[in-house]
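Case study 2.
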Amino acid sequence: MQGNSNLYIDESGSGALYEKRKNYRFFSMTGVIFNKEEPEKAYHLLNKWKNTYLIRHNLPLHGSDLFEDHIDGKTKLVKKYRKIALNKINIFSKAIDGLTEIIRSLNFVTRIYYVDLFKVRTDLRLNPYIIGKKQNIFKQIINEDLNCQLLYPVTIISNYLLAFHEKYINERPSRCGYIFYESQAEYNSIIMQNFNQLILKTYGKDGNYTFGDALLGISFLNKSALCPGIEIADYIGYCETQLLRNRHIKKEIECSENRFKILKDNYLSFKSDMNIRAINVSQECIDRLRKIRIESKHNKKAS
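Prediction:
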């Protein structure tokens, strides 16, 4: 890999943190590091794939669009996939095989970090996790009992991803890179705060932090941006999250059994070969939130 080493970040399961209509068990964020030239190659390959299989090929690829049925907000009818052919299982399977081949042909490294919100609730003795109970969302209970640390999973995972990027660049002294992130209004301030802390460390008194000199900047992209790095991160993160749901709580699987098998078989076929790792950081999240709770109670008593 030559040129800039850019980090592309996407999340999965964000509705578990702040949307009343969703109550997912897992929240994850995926980081993909491409060099400067690789996204251009990915763009052309994905564009050719979209022209073949998707009816609206000028839109970004989202894993959920391929595997899940979506309800139209106005008509309340199930939206079909972007091309009718994808409703035919043999053509659908061929399309996902083609997408897998594209991913295999690209040169990148990736990490996935996730938090099990069920474990967070159980270990901290918060309100129990109940699927579909709209009033029992993570946002509500975390704000009531843990000093409004609603998005702490975002904080801890984004720090891990930035450290992953830092390590990659520092191991290659000639490298530098940007950070690209699919904008989420609820998360942007946290991502910027973590990014600024990296810069401050660079020029801090410790003198042992070298990442910032090679860090060119951060860019927030909207969901309509045709960014191949984000699209690949989205697809890999979606696949891993679906596997987690299938392993622990199958009621959260939102695609048909046939489509899930296609997703699982294709993802596992390249996950091991490409050293894609999914790392559970739930315990660290719990330990930090437990400390916040103790500090909050102490401050209340002191006041």
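Confidence is low (pLDDT under 50) at residues 132-137.
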